[in-house]
């Protein structure tokens, strides 16, 4: 009897180890597994979310990252006044992410017309890339804009699963 | 104990499976201390748990296989603004990363109001501001063409959707009317979405539309005009018993939208179809009704095609096999074929197929199953930016008219800055191509000719490798009709020359490099919205390719890759092959209207709508060129270019309505 229970326990452990979580399975289908997992795992809503919920968590990360980048842009006006023109364009682009892309994505994903969410998420990456390009190779925002593009790509992949 | 309860806490501890597995073993140690009879029970329950875990394992693996369809390229750093070609992400579903187009330069273009305001069209339907998408419920009633559309009254991106409304006498000159329907009921609180109109036997009409409920469930609702004596149909009433249809068993609450116009069955009932999906199979559900309030769902589908994803904006209608007039949606008979069309959510392409409808059971089969609706090779109304299209029967002139949503290809920041987003294509008549019998042909409605102002006729020979300016004054609002012929000598020489390799089998507009790549027999056509130095240009052209059997295959393409210096714009090369029958010359029509270019080849066998956003080739600097980029062949071009007037689409006012009424 004891042996049977032990054997069963071992088999159960094996089954559990081989069964990847919803987050891991979803993130496997995105261009950046590690980034995807770290963003979703770190969020308390991640463990019980369905695909739609995971997408919304990532849109929230896009929102947070855009807010953070805008703060940085604003602080750069004083530190790097010579970059004003580029900073103005970046400010416009990042405000678009916050005021247009994010609300569009949230509404579309929650209401079950994910294609508009995909458009909003793709655009967040576009706006970040355009902002980066404004500095002609000497950007003070590179790590932030690169992050936005990466998060946008991962989010897009998950939104596409809803189509 | 219920095995599903046991599953939840365990899967939540998945972050470190090894650690959680170890900790799970502790409670099991207790079994050693229990009395013997209980052990048997415990063994059985562990056994059940064990089986349950396997079931979950299999279930989750099945779930994840859905997403294997999406192919994602690995993440390459996007900081290099090298010569990486822009991947037209919105137009493809292959998941390629969008990259800044760095071919021309690495300087970003900052939009200014002068450049942006030029983009607004002169004769295409668009609201005064903000976002528009799908055409809704187009119809003709008491002397007016009505057009409704998905509209966001608050922003230049999708959201807060209501039904916009406008009327016209001729499908070209419009007056905007007040919003027809807003999201004011629980059953459409989250969106008044797409729908279609049906005329009843007594001449009255009903509208069926999708509502997104306060719980975001997609349902179908009935609405009708408040006052049938009002030719402007300003006010609409929603049926008190809404919703009339909710997602049926087996259909997810967010996969049930866009009801069609109804058609009469042979036993006098009305029948509609609604697109949906089951897993990755696109389907179209069928319902019969007598009063549009209660429905019987068919057990069978109108049609389905595996691996095509969600079918949005399904359209279903008859076309005559022999005549060139349109048919009322209820027409059936031996002289008729039926078209099934769907908008593919996965790819943003509209596809259709020609087939046979069986009224007895409400099913349809395609004439050619290899190009069934939604398959990658299946026919499209338009090979460019063109989605959510919808036809209606125009009983005024006996035609079937096609509307379509033409979205933007620029960034949302530009849309927000310019304050608007999206157009409708020029309405087109749709008929079966009586010469081929296998495809539709579309053509801009005749009424657009009323916008033609002055014209100039040109007849010229264009030698290989030449670009010729066309002297037409202003070049942002044009209607061009052209005929091309490849010089017979050149053609014979090239067909006979074995060293000229066959390329028709490999050629595609999208993948063969665009208009700057020279071939034996093409490309040749027009470069529109080009500046004097051709630093910005949009070629619309034919490419004739020799096939392995020495036969010729003709392609019709629009190349937007050099349309603008702006780098936050998607710039694809669009197009497809076009059937050219024996004895036919190559003909092309192009409508240029600021930021939209619509091309029609062989009288509408292949059509391409594209959006372009030049930064230099605007206002007086926009020019027209005819070009022949073939290596050896000479072409003759015979064409007429009209200046096009504005359609003066008016904001709502009684004077504007009166002014239009008298036309």
From TrEMBL, chain A:
Domain Pectinesterase inhibitor, residue spans: 18-158
Family per record: Belongs to the PMEI family.
GO molecular function: enzyme inhibitor activity
SMART domains: PMEI (SM00856)
Lineage, highest ranks first: Eukaryota, Viridiplantae, Streptophyta, Embryophyta, Tracheophyta
Leader peptide range in chain numbering: 1-20
Organism field: Brassica oleracea var. oleracea
Keywords: Disulfide bond, Signal
InterPro entries according to UniProt: C/VIF1 (IPR034087), Invertase/methylesterase_inhib (IPR035513), PCW_Enzyme_Inhibitor (IPR052421), Pectinesterase_inhib_dom (IPR006501)
Protein name, per record: Pectinesterase inhibitor domain-containing protein
Automatic annotation (TrEMBL), chain B:
Gene Ontology cellular component list: vacuolar lumen
Broad class of the protein's primary localization: other
EC number of the protein: 3.2.1.26
GO molecular function: beta-fructofuranosidase activity
Residue ranges occupied by any Glycosyl hydrolase family 32 C-terminal domain in the UniProt entry: 447-643
One Pfam family it belongs to: INV_N
Enzyme class: hydrolase
Subcellular location: Vacuole lumen
Lineage top rank: taxon: Eukaryota
Residue stretches spanning the membrane: 40-59
Keywords: Glycoprotein, Glycosidase, Hydrolase, Membrane, Transmembrane, Transmembrane helix, Vacuole, Zymogen
Pathway as given in its UniProt record: Glycan biosynthesis; sucrose metabolism
Alphabetized Gene3D superfamilies for the sequence: Exo-inulinase, domain 1 (2.60.120.560), Glycosyl hydrolase domain, family 43 (2.115.10.20)
GO BP field: carbohydrate metabolic process
InterPro entries, per the entry: Beta-fructofuranosidase_N, ConA-like_dom_sf, Fructan_Metab_Enzymes, Glyco_hydro_32, Glyco_hydro_32_AS, Glyco_hydro_32_C, Glyco_hydro_32_N, Glyco_hydro_beta-prop_sf
SMART domains, per the entry: Glyco_32 (SM00640)
Domain Beta-fructofuranosidase N-terminal: 25-116
Domain Glycosyl hydrolase family 32 N-terminal: 124-444
Protein family membership: Belongs to the glycosyl hydrolase 32 family.
Protein known as: beta-fructofuranosidase
Organism: Brassica oleracea var. oleracea
